[in-house]
Amino acid sequence: MDLAVDYLVERNFVVRSQGNLSLRNVIGEGYLITPADVPWHRFDSKSVVLMHPDGCFSGQRTQSSEWRMHDFIYRDHPDIGAIVHAHPANAVALSHRTFRHTDPLGIPLMNFPYEDFVHFGGGIPILPPLPSGTEELAEHVSRALGVGGSIKYPALILAQHGVVAVGRDLEQALTTMDLVEHLCEIRLKIPPADTY
Ligand SMILES: [Zn+2]
Known about the structure:
Bound molecules: zinc ion
Strand content: 15-25%
Helix content: 25-40%
Number of helices: 6
Strand order of the largest sheet: 4-3-2-1-5-9-8-7-6
Mean pLDDT: 91
CATH topology: L-fuculose-1-phosphate Aldolase
Order of helices and strands: HEEEEHEHEHEHEEH
Low-confidence stretches: none
Number of domains: 1
Radius of gyration: 16 Å
């Protein structure tokens, strides 16, 4: 987890104590998550919090305030082993635009005629702004990723907030996060009238 945090900081995807990441506990139940209010330069493996299935936690710190989102995702999607949530600048800036395509759930979808979008299930959903850390946000995010346990989209954008990327492991989730930000950077360079 330390390497994943370093990577997010180096890429400027998070500043101070923004964002959070987690890893399904493969040697037991629950999942490991980054703590609340610990600036990233002070983060180390001792600050990681173990979340139990009953919502209790073990560790020297309290869990990230956005833990409910991780909780819902792990519960609804057994194939997901890692979740990364960050606030990359281009993705957040792009989420202020209006997109005319929607997915079957009616969620606005950012898409490109690029090969990269095959990886994203044809687009990246942009969820409307919802308060951070709430059950409402957690439920919306988990449902938007896919229903019935299957993953339709490996990443989504939370409008005016950040990005959630998931994967079998942290490396896969970080790669997806990277790709989202890269595509959003390109998309921002295209005048809104020319967008798809
Ligand atoms: Zn956030």
